[in-house]
Amino acid sequence: MTLLIHGGQILDRTRMALELADILIEGDRIVAVGPNLTAPDGTQKLGAVGRIVLPGLINAHTHAHNNLMKGSVDNWTREDLLNHGAALNANRTPEDQYVSAAIGAVEMLKTGCTAACDLFMAVPTPTDEGVEAVARAYIDVGLRCMIAPAVADMVFYRAIPELFDFLPLDMRRTIESMEAAPTAGLLRITENAIRRWNGSANDRIKVAIAPTTPGQNTDEFLRGCVRLAHEYGVGVHTHLAESKVQAISSLRRWGKTLVGHLVDIGMVGPRFVGAHAVWLTEEDIRQLADAEAAVVHNPAANLKLGSGIAPIREMFDYNLTVGLGCDGSMSSDNQNLFEAMRFAAMVGKVRFPHQQDRWIGARDVWKMVTSGSAHVLGMADDIGAVAPGRKADLALLRVDSVFLTPLSNAVNSLIYAETGADVDTVLVDGKIVLEHGRTITIDEERLRARSQEAADRVRTQNAAAWAWAEQLTPYIGAACRKAIAAPYPVNRYAASIVGEI
After folding, report:
1. Given pLDDT bands bounded at 50, 70 and 90, which one contains residue 14?
2. Residue in 88, 110, 112 with CA at minimum distance from that of residue 100
3. Farthest CA pair distance, the chain
4. Domain CATH for 125
5. Distances (CA, A) of 473 to 30, 80, 122, 173
6. Comparing 30-39, 313-322, 489-498, which segment has the lowest mean pLDDT?
7. How crowded is the C-beta side of 426, counted as CA atoms within 13 Å?
8. CA angle, residues 339, 343, 344, in degrees to nearest 5
C-alpha cells in the first residue's frame, strides 16, 4: 500500500523548527519527505492540515505487569515495591497478563508512543504462556515492542544488606525457607522467548534478555545471560544502580560497583542497556560509554520512589547514549512520555544552580525519546525520525489546542507544555492504529472492563501476601536506612548529607 500524508508540519531535525511537508509511505517505510509531493495513481491519502507529524515516541523502559495495579499506593521506595511483589503479581493467569499488557499499550498509543521495551515480570516467574500473552497483546494493539521477560534466580530479600539482623526469628526462618526459581529453568524460558518471538509480527516484536537486577542474580545466571546474548545476537536490559541500596549491596557482595562487576563477567557491550542508572560513578559512566552501551532515564519513577536524580549531564559529557522511559505504572503511575519528557527536562536543573550550560534542555530530551530510545531498542536506523528509509511510525498532534497555542517554539512547547491530550492519529508500520483518539485495533471498552475485573480479583486473592509484606515493611525500611547511611563515592539524593537521611 502507498499512503501520502499531506499538508502537515514536521520538526526539522537540524533547526528543530516546524516546516510544511508531505510524507510518502510505501508499505511500512517512508520513501519521501518534502513539500507538495507527487504520489502515484491509486495512492491513499491522509490529510494532516492543522497537524504536527512527529516520529512515534519510544518508551525505552516499562513493565506490562504494573498496569493492573497503577494508582494503588503512595510513598513507596523501590524496595517497598519489590517487597510487595507477590501481593501485586501472584495468582495471575495468562489472560490477566494479556489484559495488563494491552491496557498499557493502548495508553501508550493514545499519548503518541509507537514502540516500547517491556521488562514484564510474573510471580513466581514468567512462563512460556505468559510470554505469549504479552506478545499477543502488543501484536493485537499494534504497538512495536522489545519484550524482555525479567527474571531473577535469587530471593529479593537476600539482596538487602543486613536485613536478617533486623528481622524477628520467625520472619527470618520464613525467608530462609524461600527458594528462588532454578537458574537453568530461567535461562530456558528466556531462550524459548527468543526462539519463538524474536522478529515475529513483521519484526514488530523483538526479544531481549533481562536479568531483572544484577544483585538479585547469581553469577552463574548472569554468565548464562551473556552466553545467550552472544549466541542469539540479542540485547541485555537490566535495572542498573537504581537505588543506593543496590549500589551498597554490590560493594559488599563483589567489592566493586555493579558496572565494574558486569564489565568483569563480559556483560557490558554495545547491546547492553542499564535502566535508571542513578547511582553511577564517573568511572561507571566512562566504562559504559567506552563499551558503547546505553542507559534509560526514568525521571518520574526515580522521583516517586525516592531513588535520586540520575547524572544525565555527566552521561552526555562522555557521549553515553541515553534513552527515555516511563517505567512501570506502579513506579510512576502512567505511560505518558510527554510527562516523562517534562520531568527529564526539569529534574536535573537543581543539580547545577545557576550553571545553565550544565542543564538538560528540551532538545536534549527530544534526542533521548527519539534517537536515544531507538538505539536502546536496537533500531537506531529504523525508527525515531521522520525521514526516507525509516519505518512509518508516526504520531499526528492537533496544533490548534490549548496546550500548543500560542506556539512560539515548537520543541519547547512539545516538551514543557504538551500533555499527550492532542494526539489525534498514530501509525505503526504505515498502518493507522489510532484514529481521532480512538484505538481501532482492539475493543477499548471491553478491555477496560476486563482489566478492572482482573485487578479486583487479583487484589482479593492476594490479601494474605499483602498482609505479609506489610509486616515486613518496617524491618526492610530500617535495613535500607542503615544501608544508605554507608559512604559511597557519589550522592544522588537531594539531601546534602546522606547520614542525616
Report:
1. confident
2. 88
3. 78
4. 3.20.20.140
5. 52, 7, 21, 17
6. 489-498
7. 30
8. 115
Q: Would you state the cell numbers that stand for residue 20, as one nine-digit string?
A: 510544511
Name the residue range of residue 279's domain. Answer: 54-439
**Within-domain flag for 7:** no
Type of residue numbered 224: G
Write the DSSP string, 189-253: HHHHHHHHHTTHHHHTEEE-BEES-GGGS-HHHHHHHHHHHHHHT--EEEEES-SHHHHHHHHHH
For residue 179, what pLDDT is reported? Answer: 92
How many structural domains is the chain composed of?
Answer: 1
Chain segment 196-232, per-residue pLDDT in tens: 999 999 999 999 999 999 999 999 999 999 999 999 9
Pairing assessment for the beta strands 294-297 and 272-276 based on DSSP bridges: parallel
Q: Show the cell assigned to 178.
A: 524461600
The answer to whether position 106 is within a domain reads yes
In a domain, 69, yes or no: yes
pLDDT digits (tens, 9 = 90+) for 327-366: 999 999 999 999 999 999 999 999 999 999 999 999 999 9
pTM: predicted TM-score of the whole model, two decimal places: 0.97
Whether the CB-CB separation of 129 and 94 falls below 8 Å is answered with yes
Does residue 30 sit within a domain? Answer: no
Question: What single letter denotes the amino acid at residue 450?
Answer: R
